[in-house]
Amino acid sequence: MSGRPYGAQAGPRGAAEGLRSHAAALRERAERLRGACAGLDWKGPQADLFRARVDELALRCTRAAEGLARSAAELDGRGR
Predict the structure, then answer these.
(1) Long-range contacts of range 62-67, CB-CB < 8 Å, 24 or more positions apart?
(2) By C-alpha distance, which of 26, 2, 22, 1 is closest to 75?
(3) Model confidence, pTM
(4) Distance between CA atoms of residues 18 and 15, nearest Å
(5) Could you tell me the CATH number of the domain that includes residue 62?
(6) Where in the sequence is the domain holding 45, given as residue range(s)?
(7) Does residue 5 form part of some domain?
(8) Structural domain count, the chain
(9) What pLDDT does residue 53 have?
């Protein structure tokens, strides 16, 4: 381990690519959560609460991915 902060070896472009990669992974996980939840054969109030919690978590993942993408754009000089 070099002791450098994440992305420091490759400079801003490497850090931006890392952020984009993490953003893509978060988006993919959000879609997997939504898909898995939609496929459940479970009915009733508890199921509704569970689905609402999963939807909330998926939305948080999507928002975090958007933030990472904006940060990557800033590093690229496009977010100004």
Answers:
(1) 62/26, 62/27, 62/30, 64/23, 64/26, 65/22, 65/23, 65/24, 65/26, 65/27, 65/30, 66/23
(2) 22
(3) 0.77
(4) 5
(5) 1.10.287
(6) 11-76
(7) no
(8) 1
(9) 98
Residue 1 in domain: no
Q: pLDDT tens digit string along 14-36?
A: 999 999 999 999 999 999 999 99
Residue the block writes with tokens 């996980």: 29
State the pLDDT confidence band at 79, using cuts at 50, 70 and 90: low
42 within a domain of the structure (yes/no) = yes
pLDDT digits (tens, 9 = 90+) for 48-70: 999 999 999 999 999 999 999 99
| Of 9, 18, 2, 6, the residue nearest 76 (C-alpha) | 18
> Is residue 2 in some structural domain?
no
CB 38: neighbour CB atoms within 10 A?
10
